[in-house]
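are you around this afternoon, could really use another pair of eyes. what follows is a protein written twice so to speak, once as letters and once as structure tokens for the fold. i want to understand how the tokens follow from the sequence so walk me through it. anything you notice is useful, everything is just below.
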Amino acid sequence: MKLSKQFPLNALRVFEAAARLGSFTRAGEELGMTQTAVSYQIKLIEESVGEPLFLRRPRQVTLTEVGARLAPKVTEAFEMLKDAVASARGDTEAALLISSTATFASQWLAREIGTFQLEHPNIAVRLVANDAIVDFSKESVDVAIRSGKGDWPGLVSHRLMRVEFAPMLSPALAETIGGVRTPRDLLKLRIIDPRDPWWPLWFHAAGVDDPDLASRPVSRLGAQVFEARAAVAGQGVAILMPEFYSDDVALGRLYQPFNLRCSDTHDYWLVYPHARRNTPKIRAFRDWILGALNPDSIT
């Protein structure tokens, strides 16, 4: 039997899009097909498999148990085909697009990525720094660095760094109130971003249960790295990850007045689609960054 007869590749392509997008209409828009054509291709693959792959409801389709088992394998197969074609063209490792939170990108990745490029000179790196959640099904991002609990469906997750935070400020600002000797002394100063959920966690752990942060002027700078720059400038007390600011501490621009550090169980993770886990450039970056930050996690 011919391969095209045994495996209706075009129908599989339509099935992969419909399963990923959860909609025949959206699959048709992505592939430039009518909804009727999408339905016909889905029917072909269902006839080939011998089982229904979707439960059809008004304005909604959901995968059956068989469809849910088939979908990730089809996605992986198409990713492998894409990588194989790219390899034949000689551009498998032409570019690695990394999406990262702004703070991790500026405080660690941008300073260390040169080592990766020296080890892999045939991989051109492009770094996009923002806190938006990447949709791998719609964007050309290869890997992302996210803050969270590592439980994103369909993605492989590797913990990179445990997030622990504590108040930090400039020594000069502390001197304006005669020094910071107790956690409550911090409340004599401007709190940078008092609505940050890290603040009440830290104050509670420090034994200050009534910091009245809600009454303070709201200031949102958008990223921890910007709050750190404001703290260096003496604009207030920021709650930060101290390991990111060891240079500022060494230069006397910031200090951590108390040893107490807290965590909200949201850590930094490297994530990428499960279907692309064997892509050479992704494997190379994964092994490098885990080796740099968490060598025991490499398998």
Q: What stands out?
A: The radius of gyration is 25 Å. The chain has eleven helices and nine strands.
